[in-house]
Fold this sequence. Notes:
Blueprint: E1 5-8, E2 11-13, E3 16-18, E4 23-24, E5 28-29, E6 34-36, E7 39-42, E8 46-49, H1 57-68, E9 75-77, H2 83-86, H3 89-95, E10 100-103, H4 105-113, E11 122-124, E12 130-132, E13 137-142, E14 152-156, E15 161-163, H5 185-188, H6 190-201, H7 205-215, E16 222-224, H8 235-246, E17 252-260, H9 265-279, E18 285-289, H10 295-304, E19 305-315, E20 318-319, H11 321-332, E21 338-345, H12 352-361, E22 366-375, H13 384-397
Parallel strand pairs: 8-9, 9-10, 10-11, 15-16, 17-18, 17-19, 19-21, 21-22
Antiparallel strand pairs: 1-2, 2-7, 3-6, 4-5, 7-8, 12-13, 13-14, 14-15, 19-20
Amino acid sequence: MHCVRKVTEDLYWVGANDHRLNLFENIHPISRGVSYNSYLLMDKKTVLFDTVDWSVCRQFLENVKAVLDGRNLDYLVINHMEPDHAASIEEILLRYPKVKVISTEKAFMLMHQFGFDVEERKEVVKEGDVKSFGKHTVTFVSAPMVHWPEAMVTFDTTNGVLFAADAFGSFGALDGKLFNDEVNFDRDWIDEARRYYTNIVGKYGPHVQALLKKAAGIDIKIICPLHGPVWRSNLGYFIDKYDKWSRYEPEEKGVMIVYASMYGNTESAATVLASKLVEKGITNVVMYDVSNTHVSQLISETFKYSHIVLASVTYNLGIYPLMHNYLMDMKALNVQNRTVAIVENGSWACKSGDLMAEFLDDMKQMSVLNERLTMVSSLNEEKIDEMDVLVDGIIESMKD
C-alpha cells in the first residue's frame, strides 16, 4: 500500500522510513530509525528527485507508481549518489525505460562505478544550468563535498523549493509526520539533527559555508532534505544552526566533561569537578562516560558546548583507548574553536594529560588551559586545592 504526502502544489513526498536499521552507514546508532526522502514533481513532465536506500525500495516504488497514476516518468534528478539515496536507481530504470537521468558529470562517473547503465539516458548538468519541466523551472547548484564530491542541490524557481541533498537532514524516522511544524523540533529533533550533521557532514564546514552563501542569494521557501523533516516555516532557525556548526562555533556556553574511568576513580573526580562548577554558578554542565556513550553522540555534544574537559586514566602508558578514539574523531571531523581542560590519572606513570595536550596541539584553534588536575590513583584532600584552581580557570575562561 502506498504512503505519500503532498509537499506543495504538484510536489509529493514519495520516500519511506526504516525502523529496522540499527546502524546508519554501519557506524552510527539510530534508535529512532531514519527516513529516506524522495520527491515527485507532477508537471507537464514528471520528475523524480533522488531515490532511496535498497531497504525501503518496495515502499518507494509503490509510492511513485501511485502518484504517477498511469503516467510515464520523464526525468530522474540525482542530487547525491550515496547508496542510501541512489541504490534504487536501477529499479527506476527498469520500470520506466524512457526516463532521462539528470545529474553532474562526477555523479555519472559514480553511477558507472556502482554498475548503473545510464549511458543512453544521461543528461549532464553543471552549476547554473536551467531546466524547464512545464510551469516549473529549476536551476542546478553545485555543492561539492556536502558531503561527497559529486553533490548538487536543485532549486525550483517557480515555487521556491530547494531539493537540498544531504544538507539540512536529520536522523530519525518521520512516522507519518513530514513538516518541521508538525513536530516539536527543538525538543524532539535538534539533537538528532546535530548528530547527523556533525558526524556525516561536519568535516566539511568550509564547503557548507560556500553552499550557505549561494543559498543566501535565492528566495528559498521550502527545504526538502534527503533525511528528516521538510522545512516550510522558520527556515532561519535551522539555517542558523548550520551556519554555527559549519563555522565550528559552539551553540551554547557550557562545560562538557568526557571521562575515561576503569574502576570509578576518574569518574568520581569528574563528578566532584561538575559539582564544584555548578556550586559556582556554571549550571550548564553535562557528563559523559566515554566507555558507554557512542562516539557519534560525543561528537554531537562537542559541537554544542564551548568548553570540554577531558578526564582520562593512563592506559598502557597511553591515553585510554576509547578516549583516544574520541580524540581521533574530533580531529577527523575538524572540531575547533573550543576551550579544553585536562584531568589526568595514573597509578605509577601518569602520561595521559601530556599525551592529550599533544594531540590537541595538532588540531585547529583549540585552547588548552594551563590549569590541570593530576591524580595518582584517586582524588584525595591533598588535590582539592588543585581541583579548585582548575574550576576557577574554567570559569575565568568562560567570561566574555
